[in-house]
Amino acid sequence: MYLRGLHSARPRPALALLHFSTRASSLSPPAMKFEELVGPTLLNGEGVEVPTSEALQGKKHVMLYFSAHWCPPCRRFTPLLADAYSAHKEYLAGGDAEDDVGEIEVIFVSLDSVKSEYDQYRGTMPWLSVPYANLHKLRIKDTLSGKYSVRGIPALIVLDGESGEVVTMNGRGEYANYFKGEYSSGSSMCSVS
Question: Which residues of 50-76 are buried (b: 16+ CB within 10 A; e: fewer)?
Answer without folding.
Answer: eebeebbeebebbbbbbbbbbbeebee
